[in-house]
């Protein structure tokens, strides 16, 4: 194992045979066959406050003593700390499949009154790695590019149970455009289940409020149900509540497990009922290993590359970029949208006008009909009236004539 802060330095590699199970050998067979020959490659960075268990977590994740134990030599002594960015390479073999792993440990922060500058060396390290890759891409012979870019950044959050600290927000805000952020709640054995659930919710809402983007594992629709459910379970557990421990301890029922022993029992690292360590490991080296690499290459590196080339005055790229200026595109979209709305409004008005006209015509028609009917009834009534008047006159005439009454009397 070799420490080196320079990303482009080729450190000698130590082969390690591990005894525990990591999981990368379970990647889908197709990818596996292709990759068995070359092995997989992953570069993970750990960032967070001092003493949150970053180095321990790396050792736990890969079940290997990648970092020497950082416990103080005697209880009264200070705990040895990571004081510089350290890059360590190891080749881990599992079921004949190799994982070339680079771990980048960063000095913990939080011991300084002014923490603001501490983020810059980390960001610089990430960008230097992009630089190293870009300069390889510009070579005439581009075969066998060495990818030292950071594929995942595990960000350690202190298990306070309160809101995210300002320093964490600042750090993540600086890093999220350059790296796949995977937030974890460190030392989750110090919180109970309810506290963890509340803290997770709070962290997610703080991240959203501050516009911090964390790694979102893609869902593949053509995956079988089991894989989809597994991926969903992992996604729901973010930010992972993790416990790190490399030592094996004995549980009350006599099992020997990796964990932390307390008077009240053992917190088991590999037990999903105790912490999310297994889910973090699964995401990193099994379910999303390729997704992390792909997103780094296609989105994060491309974004950095575009910005870099623009800053270097590559006007051709700039003009292409300008064509896709988001503000201009938004304005264009708005104009098209408004034109569509105006057209829609005009056609609605036309339909409305037509409907009113039809209704008016109908009303007029029924008015005419009503008027005609009214006139007809009135005429009939007038006629009946005239006939009645006529009859009345006849009767009155007949009654006033004496002949008529005699005749009637005689006949009767
Ligand atoms: P820096 O090098 O200062 O950045 O520290 P670090 O974040 O690398 O922490 P490190 O791994 O050195 O662990 C610090 C202390 O925390 C050690 O005493 C570990 O045994 C302890 N520790 C690590 N992980 C856990 C955990 O999950 N729970 C508990 N309770 N303690 C832990």
TrEMBL record:
<dbReference type="InterPro" id="IPR030379">
    <property type="entry name" value="G_SEPTIN_dom"/>
</dbReference>
<dbReference type="GO" id="GO:0005525">
    <property type="term" value="F:GTP binding"/>
</dbReference>
<dbReference type="Pfam" id="PF00735">
    <property type="entry name" value="Septin"/>
</dbReference>
<feature type="domain" description="Septin-type G">
    <location>
        <begin position="38"/>
        <end position="311"/>
    </location>
</feature>
<comment type="similarity">
    <text>Belongs to the TRAFAC class TrmE-Era-EngA-EngB-Septin-like GTPase superfamily. Septin GTPase family.</text>
</comment>
<dbReference type="GO" id="GO:0005940">
    <property type="term" value="C:septin ring"/>
</dbReference>
<dbReference type="GO" id="GO:0000281">
    <property type="term" value="P:mitotic cytokinesis"/>
</dbReference>
<keyword id="KW-0175">Coiled coil</keyword>
<dbReference type="InterPro" id="IPR016491">
    <property type="entry name" value="Septin"/>
</dbReference>
<keyword id="KW-0547">Nucleotide-binding</keyword>
<keyword id="KW-0342">GTP-binding</keyword>
<keyword id="KW-0132">Cell division</keyword>
<dbReference type="InterPro" id="IPR027417">
    <property type="entry name" value="P-loop_NTPase"/>
</dbReference>
<feature type="coiled-coil region">
    <location>
        <begin position="327"/>
        <end position="398"/>
    </location>
</feature>
<dbReference type="GO" id="GO:0032161">
    <property type="term" value="C:cleavage apparatus septin structure"/>
</dbReference>
<dbReference type="GO" id="GO:0031105">
    <property type="term" value="C:septin complex"/>
</dbReference>
<protein>
    <submittedName>
        <fullName>Septin-type G domain-containing protein</fullName>
    </submittedName>
</protein>
<keyword id="KW-0131">Cell cycle</keyword>
């Amino acid at each position: 194992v070799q420490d080196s802060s320079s990303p482009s330095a080729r450190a000698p590699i130590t082969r390690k045979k591990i005894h525990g199970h990591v999981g990368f050998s379970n990647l889908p067979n197709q990818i596996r066959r292709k990759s068995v020959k070359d092995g997989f490659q992953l570069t993970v960075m750990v960032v967070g406050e001092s003493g949150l268990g970053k180095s321990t977590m790396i050792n736990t994740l890969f079940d290997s003593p990648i970092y020497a134990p950082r416990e103080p030599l005697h209880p009264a002594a200070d705990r040895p700390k990571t004081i510089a960015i350290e890059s360590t390479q190891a080749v881990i073999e599992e079921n004949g499949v190799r994982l070339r792993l680079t771990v980048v440990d960063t000095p913990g922060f939080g011991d300084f009154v002014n923490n603001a500058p501490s983020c810059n060396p980390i960001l610089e390290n990430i960008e230097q790695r992009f630089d190293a890759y870009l300069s390889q891409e510009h070579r005439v012979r581009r075969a066998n590019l060495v990818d030292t870019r950071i594929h995942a950044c595990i960000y350690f959050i202190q298990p306070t149970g309160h809101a995210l600290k300002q320093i964490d927000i600042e750090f993540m805000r600086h890093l999220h455009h350059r790296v796949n952020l995977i937030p974890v709640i460190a030392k989750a054995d110090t919180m109970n289940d309810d506290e963890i659930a509340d803290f997770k919710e709070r962290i997610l809402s703080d991240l959203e409020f501050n516009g911090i983007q964390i790694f979102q594992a893609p869902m593949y629709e053509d995956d079988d149900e089991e894989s989809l459910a597994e991926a969903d379970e992992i996604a729901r557990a973010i930010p992972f509540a993790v416990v790190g421990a490399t030592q094996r301890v004995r549980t009350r029922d006599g099992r020997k497990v990796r964990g932390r022993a307390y008077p009240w029992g053992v917190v088991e690292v590999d037990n999903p009922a105790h912490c999310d360590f297994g889910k973090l490991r699964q995401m990193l080296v099994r379910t999303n290993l390729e997704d992390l690499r792909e997103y780094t290459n296609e989105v994060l590196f491309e974004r950095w590359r575009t910005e870099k080339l623009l800053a270097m005055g590559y006007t051709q790229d700039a003009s292409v970029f300008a064509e896709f200026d988001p503000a201009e595109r938004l304005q264009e979209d708005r104009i098209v949208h408004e034109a569509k709305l105006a057209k829609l409004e005009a056609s609605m008005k036309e339909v409305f006008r037509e409907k009113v006209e039809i209704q008016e015509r109908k009303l007029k028609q029924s008015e005419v009909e009503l008027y005609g009917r009214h006139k007809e009834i009135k005429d009939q009534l007038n006629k009946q009236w005239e006939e009645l008047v006529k009859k009345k006159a006849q009767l009155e005439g007949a009654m006033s004539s004496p002949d008529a009454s005699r005749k009637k009397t005689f006949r009767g």
